[in-house]
Amino acid sequence: MKKLAFGLSLLLGLGFGESLGEMGAIASAQTEISENHSEAINSPVSVVLIEAGEGEKQELRLRPEVGETQTLNMSIQMNIETFFGGMSMPSIPDVTTTLTIESVVTDVKENGDIQAEFIYTNTAVLPSETVEIPPEVIEEMNAKIATLIGTKGIILLDNRGLTKSLNIEVSEDIDPLVENTVDQLLINSFENMSSPLPEEAVGVGAVWQIEQDVNLNGLELDQTAVYTLENRTEDTVTLSMIIEQTAEEQQFTPWGLPAEMAVDLVSLESTGTGDFTMNLTQLFPVEAAMNLVTRSQMNLPNLEENATTSMRTNTEMDLMIMSGN
């Protein structure tokens, strides 16, 4: 979820106008990519139990039945500040993006693995409530992101929420810029939509840590999330979460770009908190709220002047999820 939201911030930035021309130039150099994608997880996920909690201990396992449907309604509010070459660019203030994803469980295997199909059925970019944004800009954003509608796929998870495989088929009408920007982010978001649960039986107050190396559009990140089991009933668990992402200095080439368009990352840090409610009879969280702050600095290639341009970005994101059958 977090990675999808981070990717949407890039997408909205690219659509905000000529003030982000350098990023637009990078995006325009991307090549076509296949409409069908089959991926496994980025890297092995480490789930380590830190505290077992109190009271009766029980294993946390997903157990949806075949035919179980779920509609995810996501609301992602962004505030993005961007600086090119030390100069402040117009920010993207309080822009809210909404996404609707419908899913259905198609198979539950003897070993507990769960297969589901999903499809994006609705998108919208809403005007800022605090700053006036030209209607034509909002209209352009909506036109681009709406081309996600119809993108669908199949996901296979184990009953602890670890992704085993994922296949995504993008919409035939998808905008090339949206496809190149969001394609891998869709894969990453579904890999992490259902947070991995510990193998051990746990009680209320249990704490576990999830570590994973993440490749996000060619950028290597270290991700650590710490979850606490705040409450549990027979089918429902309530979790709180603290997450951090860091990246070492590195040169990376976003997917689809030629080698001469490599970007130099100077620094990147993300910190956030969240609260989740999961119904173990459903595949994805039924309710979630997250706040994430990301600060990054990188040097972008400026081929016309045979030089680089420094870009610094501060992004604050608030994510809300509500779902139902």
Description:
There is one protein chain. This protein is mainly beta and 325 residues long. It has a single domain (2-324), classed as Lipovitellin-phosvitin complex, beta-sheet shell regions. The chain has helices spanning 2-14, 21-28, 135-145, 176-191, and strands spanning 36-39, 46-51, 54-58, 69-84, 87-88, 92-108, 114-126, 152-157, 163-169, 202-204, 207-216, 219-232, 236-247, 250-252, 263-279, 287-302, 307-324. A hairpin with a 2-residue loop joins strand 11 and strand 12. The longest helix is centred in the middle third of the chain and has 16 residues, at 176-191.
Write the layout of secondary structure elements.
Blueprint: H1 2-14, H2 21-28, E1 36-39, E2 46-51, E3 54-58, E4 69-84, E5 87-88, E6 92-108, E7 114-126, H3 135-145, E8 152-157, E9 163-169, H4 176-191, E10 202-204, E11 207-216, E12 219-232, E13 236-247, E14 250-252, E15 263-279, E16 287-302, E17 307-324
Antiparallel strand pairs: 1-9, 2-11, 3-10, 4-5, 4-6, 4-17, 6-7, 7-8, 8-9, 11-12, 12-13, 13-15, 14-15, 15-16, 16-17
Helix pairs in contact: 1-4
The CATH topology annotation reads as: Lipovitellin-phosvitin complex, beta-sheet shell regions
The parts where pLDDT drops under 50 for at least 5 residues are 1-42
Return the average pLDDT rounded to an integer: 79
Number of beta-strand segments: 17
Classify the beta-strand content into a percent band.
over 45%
Summed up, the domain count is 1
Fraction of residues in helices?
Answer: 10-25%
Shape: globular
The CATH class assignment is Mainly Beta
CATH architecture: Roll
Gap from first CA to last CA = 19 Å
Structural class: mainly beta
Number of helices: 4
Helix-strand pattern: HHEEEEEEEHEEHEEEEEEEE
* Biggest sheet overview: 15 strands, antiparallel
Radius of gyration equals: 20 Å
